[in-house]
From TrEMBL:
Pfam family, one: PMT_2
Superkingdom classification of source: Bacteria
PANTHER family, alphabetized: MANNOSYLTRANSFERASE YKCB-RELATED (PTHR33908), UNDECAPRENYL PHOSPHATE-ALPHA-4-AMINO-4-DEOXY-L-ARABINOSE ARABINOSYL TRANSFERASE (PTHR33908:SF3)
Annotated TM spans: 12-30, 77-105, 111-132, 139-158, 170-195, 207-227, 354-371, 383-402, 408-431, 443-462, 468-492, 504-526
Domain spans labelled Putative mannosyltransferase YkcA/B-like C-terminal: 561-645
Annotated source species: Thermoanaerobacterium xylanolyticum (strain ATCC 49914 / DSM 7097 / LX-11)
Lineage: Bacteria, Bacillati, Bacillota, Clostridia, Thermoanaerobacterales
Designated name of the protein: Glycosyl transferase family 39
GO molecular function: pentosyltransferase activity
Topology within the bilayer: Multi-pass membrane protein
Length: 685
């Protein structure tokens, strides 16, 4: 095995990996537990092997997290090794981010050289949504790392023509499915298109190999879900966010059709979904609710449909909004933005997370296309790699541009690898054409101008967010567009000026990386919204921190309630029953005690009938119930029965605030304390 030499190029890679580590790990503790829904699940999973296998949200194994297991298994293992804490559950994603940067370098370097690999790695390391996901316990970057390993095996399959590497590649995609379900399949069009076009082996063999690999993909993808569904329902938790307690239905429904704008769209999923809130488009919501957040933190809901202090309307799974309009919360940040080719370039919560280098990536693809001519036979890795990356980027871009289904800004990390690779490939390719002269030499300065203008547009959207925006805009204009002007003028200098041209190339690249790097760096100093992680100048204003189960725990809100419940619980199995996980997250994290989220994550899961709930009361397993929040469907019937039959516990005994006038809660929207009822001694008919 060759010893690793510390040559110039290796030092460059190490510096980029160091930068990635700094962005991913520095001051990670400010994120608290990040997404508390997932954090509560990890704590519960660490308490028993049964909870671990079934991905139970609560210690009693009542309902599951609405995601597959692998990402949370890894977080749980880290929590067992290092102790349960915010940092221990965030570490796997931060590590996955750094590994992904290294993988991008390896994948690009193999066919396009070290310089292209270094640029690609640097672009990925400084992509805002990629950094945000690396600092959060959402599992998208763990999926991304898995898919990049799959690409590594896939390219080996193309190079050698051997079946075993193709099987390994789709095996790894199947593993990715068990990290984030159908999101893993976003890479499938690229894999199938590229393999079918590859001509190293006969077409008949390609179809046969691909068929075998597809069987492996499906077996690995569905293995855990089938095991869960084959387990008697009485011996496992209810499958959260499903309609019929089935993982397969969850795959097809909540994590499938709903992402395409089809299906019931009634729940939020593990980080928002189809629930509705507020008359804000994605960008306006994120940028303009500083006052909203402040009011909530003070214990008051701002005016929506009712008076100040009144909770929003949750009827039918829809949050009331001003003017009676509607839009999706997770969908609001994604699917509710106007569907068009310009969606990701518009003034919303999406554009500044991913689109900075998108124009350069497109120019990069076109440059390599012009330079090498994608003509048959497709028998070398360089051509096939280019096909793979553009076949990854285009379908994913189209999906995020036009889907009306629910998706969240942090899903955009799926666009980061192809943008990074095509940018690195393209800059090197355009530089080579620039040196050769002729008409094609104008492509490099043109790409700097086009990308610089897009970056200035995105920055303009944030002009009033911070005073530093104008300086970033000036830097981008001078560095990227200025260097393009100089490079254009120097095309007329037939002799000499090479060092100046190369310097201008470097300046131009730096200019394009200034804004996304600053966006990413904000996460080092300001905590993100735990449930909707994103990087950017809004973090400096604190406007993004209004949270549905994310970030730091509200100690003052929970302490007295927890103390009361622990003191009076008696022999009851459950410390408390609440309508949804929104009200249970922080209590589970703090105590490790069973808290029943009656309707799962969003409050819409119909897990128990009224008669089943009464039976639990009769057995003494349930004593205290907190009404309010997002109870819907059969859960509304249960909560109404609790109000009619339970004994109302005086607020002064369990809360330091007046629950009828406070929106203060366990950690987020819809988590108002409501009213606490004691069911001990209730006559159950």
């Amino acid at each position: 095995m060759k010893r690793l030499k510390f040559n110039k190029d290796n030092i460059g890679l190490y510096l980029i990996l160091l930068l990635s580590a700094i962005l991913n790990f520095t001051n990670l503790s400010i994120e608290g537990y990040a997404n508390q829904y997932y954090a509560a699940g990890v704590k519960s999973m660490s308490m028993s092997l049964k909870n671990f296998f079934f991905v139970s949200y609560d210690p009693a194994g009542f309902v599951t997290i609405d995601k597959p297991p692998l990402g949370f298994w890894i977080q749980t293992i880290f929590a067992k090794i290092f102790g349960f804490s915010g940092i221990s559950i965030l570490l796997p994603q931060a590590i996955a981010g750094v590994i992904s940067v290294a993988l991008i370098y390896v994948l690009v370097k193999r066919y396009f050289g070290k310089t292209a690999g270094l640029i690609s790695a640097l672009v990925l390391a400084t992509t805002p949504v990629f950094v945000a996901d690396s600092r959060n316990n959402t599992i998208d970057n763990m999926l991304l790392m898995t898919l990049l390993f799959a690409v590594l095996a896939f390219m080996k399959a193309l190079d050698t023509g051997k079946l075993k590497y193709l099987l390994l590649s789709l095996f790894l995609v199947g593993v990715g499915f068990n990290v984030k379900m159908l999101e893993a399949y976003m890479i499938i069009p690229a894999v199938y298109i590229t393999y079918i076009l590859a001509s190293k082996i006969s077409f008949k063999k390609r179809i046969g190999y691909l068929s075998l690999a597809t069987v492996v993909l499906l077996i690995v993808s569905l293995s855990w879900a089938i095991i869960v569904d084959m387990t008697p329902q009485s011996m496992r938790p209810y499958v959260g966010s499903s309609t019929d307690n089935s993982e397969l239905e969850l795959i097809i429904g909540h994590n499938g059709l709903e992402r395409l704008g089809l299906g019931r769209n009634t729940g939020f999923g593990g980080g928002f979904g189809g629930g509705r809130i507020g008359n804000f488009n994605g960008g306006e919501f994120r940028r303009n609710f500083g006052n909203f957040n402040a009011q909530v933190n003070q214990g008051n809901f701002p005016r929506f449909n009712g008076q100040n202090g009144a909770n929003p309307n949750f009827a039918g799974g829809n949050f009331g909004r001003p003017n009676g309009n509607r839009g999706g919360m997770g969908g609001m940040f994604g699917g509710d933005e106007k569907a068009s080719i310009l969606r990701l370039f518009s003034n919303n919560s999406l554009s500044d997370q991913i689109i900075w280098l998108f124009p350069m990536a497109i120019f990069g693809f076109l440059a390599e296309l012009l330079r090498k001519r994608l003509k048959r036979p497709f028998d070398d890795g360089r051509k096939l790699s280019l096909i793979l990356w553009i076949s990854w980027l285009v379908p994913v871009f189209i999906y995020f541009s036009f889907t009306t289904g629910m998706f969240h800004p942090y899903y955009l990390t799926m666009m980061a690898p192809p943008i990074a690779t095509l940018t690195g490939i393209g800059i090197v390719s355009m530089w080579e054409m620039y040196k050769e002269g002729g008409t094609k030499s104008w492509l490099l300065p043109l790409s700097f101008v086009a990308d610089g203008l897009v970056e200035l547009l995105i920055l303009y959207y944030h002009y009033n967010t911070s005073n530093i925006t104008k300086y970033i805009m000036l830097s981008v204009a001078v560095f990227s567009i200025g260097s393009a002007v100089v490079l254009s003028l120097m095309t007329f200098a037939k002799n000499g000026g090479f060092k100046v041209k190369k310097a201008m190339l470097t300046v131009g690249v730096i200019g394009l990386l200034i804004a996304p790097t600053i966006w990413s760096a904000t996460t080092l100093f300001y905590p993100m919204n735990g449930t909707m992680p994103s990087a950017g100048l809004e973090l400096m204003t604190g406007r993004n921190r209004f949270d549905f189960g994310g970030g730091n725990i509200n100690s003052s809100a929970d302490s007295k309630l927890i103390s009361f419940l622990e003191k009076n619980k008696g022999s009851a199995k459950y410390l408390l029953v609440v309508s949804s996980s929104q009200s249970a997250d922080s209590i589970i994290i703090k105590t490790g005690e069973p808290v029943m989220a009656l309707g799962g994550f969003s409050g819409s899961d119909n897990i128990l009938t009224l008669s089943q709930f009464k039976e639990l009361v009769k057995k003494g397993e349930v004593r205290y119930v907190m009404t309010g929040g997002m109870d819907r469907g059969s859960n509304s019937e249960i909560m109404n029965w609790v109000r009619e039959n339970g004994k109302l516990v005086p607020t002064s005994e369990w809360s330091s605030t007046n629950s009828t006038q406070s929106g203060n809660g366990f950690g987020g929207f819809g988590r108002d304390f409501g009213e606490l009822y004691d069911l001990k001694g209730v006559n159950v008919n």
